[in-house]
Amino acid sequence: MATLSDATPVCKLSIPGTHDSGTSGVRLPMRHYARTQTLDLPSQWNAGIRFFDLRPRLEDGTLRIYHGPADCHLGFQEALLILKRKLEEQPTEFCIVMTNSAGGGQEGVDMTMDAIYAIFPTDMLASFNADMTVADMRGRVLFIHRDRPTGGRDYPGTVVYGWPGNASSHNAGMVSSEGQSAVLWAQDYFTDGGKGNYVDSKWDKVTALVREFASAPEGVWCINHLSGYTGSGISTNIKRNARTTNARLQEYLGNHKKPVGIVSMDFPQQELIDAIIFLNTFAAE
C-alpha cells in the first residue's frame, strides 16, 4: 500500500480479504465443512490479504475463534496481536477486520470490544467515516462489527446494520459510535440449500455487484463475498466451489479497471489476490 495516494478514499480501493479468516487450524473431523483457509493469519497478510473476518466465541470466560461449531484453535486476542505486529512492522499498510460473534451472547459481543481496546492503542484504531482516505488508515486497523455492543458503550470503528444474510443488498449501512455513517452494498449469498446450480447463481450475484459498484455514488462501501457452500458434513464442497468462483473472478478481472471494494474469499490463490490488488493501479491514476 506504500505506493497508494494518501488522498484515495478507502471505499474506492480494491481490497482482497478472507472469509472466516482464522480457520486454518480447524482439525478433523470438522475440517471437511468448517475450514475455509489453509494459510494462517501471518501467511495471509504476507500474501496481500488486508480484510480479515474473525468470529470470536465466548467460552469459559475466553474469546476464541470459531466457525459455527468448529474450534479454530486460535484465541481472538492472539489473532489481534498478530495483526498488530504486522502493522507495527509495516506502518504504510492498514487492514480491515470484521467481527461476527460465533457465540456467547451480548456478553461475548461486549468482551470483543474490550479485547480490541486492550490490544490496540488509540492511535492504531481508525476512526470511521464514509470518505476516509488512505492517509487516515496507514498503520491502523478499521473494525467493522456485525454485532452491536450494549447501548451506550463506545466501540472501535463501525457497526453494520441491515446485513443481507443469504442474499445481496444495497440497503445495508455502517455507523460509528460517533454517529458517522455510510451506505454499504453487500453480497453474502452463501448457499442455496442444494436446490439448484449454486455455483452459477453465486457467480451471477458476484458479477452483478462488481458491475454495479463500478459506478457507485461517492462514499458507498462494498463487501462482496465469493465464499459459499453446498452439501453438508463431509460432503460440504467449500473448496470446490471456491476453486470455480475464484478462477472465474480472476479471469473476469483481466478486463476490469474499476474498484471492486472488499472481496472476501475462501482459499484464495496468490494470482487472484494479486489481480485484486492490481486494480488499485487505476485508483491511483
Description:
The protein has nine helices and twelve strands. It has helices at residues 31-34, 41-47, 76-89, 105-119, 134-137, 198-213, 238-253, 270-278, 280-283; strands at 14-18, 51-54, 56-59, 62-67, 70-75, 95-99, 141-145, 158-161, 168-176, 181-187, 221-225, 261-265. The protein is α/β, with parallel strands linked by helices and 285 residues long. It has a single domain (10-283), classed as Alpha-Beta Barrel (TIM Barrel), CATH 3.20.20.190. The chain has a nine-stranded mixed beta barrel with strand order 1-2-6-7-8-9-10-11-12. A three-stranded antiparallel sheet has the order 3-4-5. Helix content is 31%, strand content 23%. It is globular, with a radius of gyration of 18 Å.
Structural class label: alpha/beta
User: Whole-number average pLDDT?
Assistant: 95
CATH superfamily: Phosphatidylinositol (PI) phosphodiesterase
First-last Cα distance:
14 Å
What characteristic shape results from the CA principal axes?
A: globular
Low-pLDDT residue spans: none
Strand content is: 15-25%
Number of domains: 1
- Tell me the number of helical segments per DSSP (H or I, 4 or more residues long): 9
From the coordinates shown, what is the CATH architecture?
A: Alpha-Beta Barrel
- Which range best describes the helical content: under 10%, 10-25%, 25-40%, 40-55%, 55-70% or over 70%? 25-40%
CATH topology (level 3) name: TIM Barrel
CATH secondary-structure class = Alpha Beta
Q: What does the main sheet amount to?
A: 9 strands, mixed, barrel
Strand adjacency order, main sheet: 1-2-6-7-8-9-10-11-12
DSSP summary, beta strand count: 12
